[in-house]
Amino acid sequence: MHAAVLSAFDTPPAYRDHPEPVATGDHEMVVDVLAAGLHHLTRAMATGAHYRGGGGLPLVPGADAVVRDRSGRLRYAALDGTGLGTFADRTVIDVRRSVVLPDGADPVLIAAAMNPGMSSWVALRRRVAFSSGQRVLIIGATGNAGRMAVQVAKLFGAAHVIAAGRDAARLAALSALGADETCTLDRIDRAADVDVVLDYLWGEPAAAAMVPMLAARADRTAPLTWIQIGSICGQTAPVPSVALRSARLQIVGSGIGSVPARDMIAELPALTIAVADGAIDVRARAMPLADVTRAWTADTDDRIVLVP
Predict the structure, then answer these.
(1) pTM for the full model?
(2) Share of the chain above pLDDT 90, in %
(3) Which domains does the chain have, with CATH numbers?
(4) 128 exposed, middle or buried (CB, 10 Å; 0-12, 13-18, 19+)?
């Protein structure tokens, strides 16, 4: 079979021959890969930049995919810490970390949506007691995950969603997806009276936003949960101590480890249905797996999905 093989952390993977996978565990199954998303998580784990990534080389990247099992059913499967990922004609999955897809589901759309969509879906389901009618601020809303977060928050009944980012033109486009308000990062104080923050940037933007937001809150004793999801702008943020003392602020993280795998898997069926039914708009661009070297560094607003 063929696979995308990463031989060095500082160069893209190459399309080449690879040995056939072999299932060895009680719950393992060899499956055909139909579509695998090229996510930030995939790149970070493959190169060791993610806290759950790294490992020996060579390796086949790919953290999840839509696959066809031995009975012909389509599944969405998430892998965990393997040297044989989903950027291949076939791979090995743990059936317990997969869900059967709804009839008629588009493999490319599911593969594009699940990883970025799960970030906000799990955060609002599992890291905060979110209820209909609450107000949500999304920092970093113009990326794929942030764009989907706007839709997920509205799907969960958010009364008011504020999308924040650097690019005013991209922000303006989010109104069509449900954003009630947009603001650039230098006007983050306009979003002071929210209940939940979904933060995809972290770093200096998060630290710079906290104090102005807290200072502008009408009631500083009202709970504010700041959920740290992504770190595109930095792994660390110099959060001032006054931010934690001057308001009822709770900072939590949402990701692999802070949310048990069983809880993440429990959320998969509902998200697959939402995507399959068109409740969430997904921007996807299918590319042949053979073009993985070019796809790895492609500059596009669409989520690239590799198709063997």
Answers:
(1) 0.92
(2) 84
(3) 2-114+261-307 (3.90.180.10), 128-253 (3.40.50.720)
(4) buried
